[in-house]
Amino acid sequence: MSCFKRPLQAQGVVAYLGPQGTYCETAMQQRFGLMVRTLSCDTVDAACQALVARQAQYAVLPLENSTEGVVTRTLDVLYDFPFPIIGEIVLPIHHCLLTKSGSLHDVTRICGHQQALAQCRRWLSLHGRGISLEAVASAGVAARLAATEPDHAAVAGAQAAQHYGLRAVVEGIEDEADNRTRFAVLGGAGPAATGFDCTTVIVSLANVPGALVDVLTPFARHGVSVLRLASRPAHGSGWNYRFYLDLMGHRDDPPLSAALTEIRHSMREIRMLGSYPRAA
Asked: What would the pLDDT profile of 26-48 be if each residue is shown by its tens digit?
């Protein structure tokens, strides 16, 4: 595990995908404030390991982008580390192309998180011809490289530019103007129902005809909306998959509670990841 601790100034410790200058740091600050104690980690796995080791009480992880979809490693980690989701943060994401000089002169490589590069695919294909693309662990890592390597540029945000002393070659290079990323807050006690909640569960199904229909039908019958549905390979079990469902409502709401009780009888496994207030 690789985590980097910053000076301690307030109660509580929050782990996040670092280093400084990432969108995850911005989301964490939006939720917990600027004076919270932080633990910067270089991977989502390391952030969850910090919870296991009790080095942090909470963790903030990127979960889903409105342009490119789910962050697959985070979904896998949510299964492997049984810490509840207690909240979500939705952050507008506006990418800049950053260099030390403010120009692309002598730049041979553009770095960014794989999701960030994909979110800027159209701009990069039009304006980055002849320049290699390199996926790195986070926007903060990309910005740190651009600050130390004159032939590197970074796809990152304004906070990264400020922290690493970079200048924007171009701002707003994301393909979709309404580009947003959803972050999950892990750890601590699950919140009570608010009337505007989301519940996330993982289900594993038998490989038989109609298995997924059998999962979804009770939610329709009880009037529960399925907000999101994603699948990930169930590692070590061939071509079997786990399904991640975001459901409208709190696990204690009678309609959702009834639907969850009903599907338990037909699932190989159902794992509750948490009920939490939806981001406005």
From this structure: 999 999 999 899 999 989 999 99
